[in-house]
Amino acid sequence: MNYILYAVPFFFVLIALELFLDRWRGVHTYRFSDAVNSLSAGVLSTTVGLLTKAVGLLTYTLVWQYLGVFELSASSLWVWLFAFVFYDFCYYWNHRLGHERNVLWAAHSVHHQSEDYNLSTALRQTSTGFIFGWIFYVPMAVLGVPPLVFLSVAALNLLYQFWVHTRHIPKLGWFEWFFITPSNHRVHHAQNVVYMDRNYGGVFILWDRLFGTFQEELDEEPVVFGVTTPLASWNPLWANAQFYLALWRDAMRCGRSRGGTSCASGLCAPAGDPLMLPRNTRSKSRISVSSSNSTCRSTWRKNSMPGRNSACMCWAALCCWAWAIP
Ligand SMILES: [Zn+2]
Ligand SMILES: [Zn+2]
Predict the structure, then answer these.
(1) Ligand 1 center–CA 96 separation, angstroms
(2) Ligand located closest to 114 CA
(3) Ligand 1 centroid distance, CA of 213 (Å)
(4) Ligand number, closest to the Cα atom of 98
(5) How far away, in angstroms, is 221 Cα from ligand 2 center?
(6) 111: closest CA among 92, 129, 93?
């Protein structure tokens, strides 16, 4: 059972509410093309996920069955609470390395490509996260968290993250100390130097405070959303593929320059080839956001896609979603 699919109607109701708030307050947090692109990426991710999540789940179940150290019961409340918190701990490291290692960033970057920040951005998910993502949750299987509990807390974690993708909610007082909120997640989606690669938690911000990756949203530094090298496309397939292709080209160039030695690893960093550096190093070397944010050379503020493309994407998204509903 996929809990996320059942939440989709509520997502759309909340997006409609956010659009109403936009109009009421006279602000513009949506561009139609960008929102369609984010929704298309989300539908693609959900559709692909129906086929690929079995890989991670099967591995998890096998590890739980044969390598599990404890026998935790799905009928114990404390097991659910423990799993919910421990899942977020594993998510923190999955997410953090997703920003710090090129090969993982290739998957996760899809979620960050939008230069807007609204509830449709929350649905902008990768279609390739299944390749390495499952590795980070193996400790839960080893500790004996049953697959049903694992799947449920994973869905709850993802559902929680939906509401924080909005610019309409300000800082939330004491809540900011413990939980991921719209304010500290806006920081996470920023490309400003001061904000980059911060606030990785899914539900709890405590991990960031503990491991030194927390950054508060500052009044004097308005957030500039997006990635430092813009996607510059509305195509959801390209959104998922472009960084892998860039890595592949770099690896080939690197291999040739080293007399045929394979350089497929993103850690291999020949001088003058910034794509092979871990993202934070690369981004900071390329960053062009001024401290006042008056200019941002790396954004791609195209406001529209051709009408025919837009209609095709809407139609494809609706078809995929209809197909994905069990
Ligand atoms: Zn991220
Ligand atoms: Zn996000």
Answers:
(1) 7
(2) 2
(3) 12
(4) 1
(5) 19
(6) 129
Judged by DSSP in three states, 179 sits in strand
Residue 107: Cβ within 10 Å count = 21
Kindly give the residue spans of alpha helices, DSSP state H, lying in 68-101.
77-100
pLDDT at 311: 55
Q: How far is the CA of 189 from the centre of ligand 1 (A)?
A: 7
Q: Ligand 2 centre and the CA of 207: distance in Å?
A: 16
Predicted confidence (pLDDT) per residue in 284-318, tens digit: 333 333 333 333 334 555 555 555 555 555 555 55
pTM for the model: 0.83
C-alpha to C-alpha distances, 252 to 100, 216, 229, 255, 271, nearest whole angstrom: 21, 40, 21, 5, 15
Residue spans per domain, the chain: 3-246+298-324
- Ramachandran angles phi, psi of 225, nearest 5°: -85, 155
Torsion (CA) 44, 49, 51, 52 in degrees, nearest 10: 120
